[in-house]
Write a structure and sequence with these properties.
234 residues, 8 helices, alpha/beta, four-stranded antiparallel beta sheet, Rossmann fold, Arc Repressor Mutant, subunit A, 43% helix, five-stranded parallel beta sheet
Length: 234
């Protein structure tokens, strides 16, 4: 059994009963407690009742869809959420980022991929809780306090998702250094994501839109073409 899934509570929200049962069984075999919900409304009820460690959430559902379920979950908690989707358009990924998704898995998928992604997001969530860095950054536009998890842009507080904050933290702690795509993937997502540089590009682009005064002419999050990114203090 995977020790990082043992005794975890996983909520699976999907209107396809056969897929929900398959996912439930996959986690149960690994020693997790898996709870299923067949629609968004029931999913929110189960979330209130069980306060899971991880949510597996389908986007396309009748009535209350996955977007709205995720939005309501994020009002209450930073619980890791993996979206199940048949969508691959960038605007849908960006929308998921806006709502605070931690990861995406495209249907159809296999059991091993799902469990690996679940372990990865749970490890990242645990590392976030244990982070003790006191690094700060402040200038006339941007204020960041990593220990307090506070980001102020242009005088206004900005909410970052857990993944966005982890990415920004890693860049700030290595300010001035060029970090390769693989270095960023290893530290922010984990080694399972080494062949997924698109994650870095998409999240970095979204982070720019949140903290840069002009995302098309960035001041802080700079691209080193063909290599990676760096955080510029000056």
């Amino acid at each position: 059994m995977g020790q990082d899934l043992k005794d975890k509570t996983v909520l699976v929200i999907d209107d396809d009963p056969s897929l929900g049962q398959m996912v439930q069984l996959a986690f149960t075999v690994e020693g997790a407690k898996a709870v299923t919900a067949g629609d968004g409304q029931d999913g929110l009820r189960q979330f209130y009742a069980h306060r899971p460690d991880l949510v597996i959430l389908d986007i396309r559902m009748p009535d209350i869809d996955g977007w709205e379920v995720l939005r309501q979950i994020r009002v209450m908690a930073d619980t890791p959420v993996i979206l199940l989707t048949t969508l691959s358009e960038d605007q849908d990924i960006v929308r998921g980022l806006d709502y605070g998704a931690d990861d995406f898995i495209s249907k159809p998928f296999n059991r091993g991929v799902l469990l690996a992604r679940a372990r990865a997001v749970l490890r990242r969530a645990q590392l976030d809780k244990e982070q003790t860095t006191s690094e700060t950054f402040q200038d006339d536009w941007l204020v960041i306090n990593l220990s307090e998890r506070q980001v102020v842009v242009g005088g206004e507080s900005v909410r970052l998702t857990a993944t966005e904050f982890r990415l920004l933290s890693y860049l700030i702690q290595n300010a001035g250094r060029v970090l390769t795509y693989n270095q960023i993937l290893d530290q922010v997502w984990g080694q399972d994501y080494r062949d997924s540089p698109d994650y870095v590009h998409v999240y970095l682009s979204h982070l720019r839109r949140k903290i840069e005064e002009d995302s098309r002419n960035p001041r802080y999050l700079l691209t080193e073409h063909g290599v990676g990114y760096r955080f510029a203090r000056d």
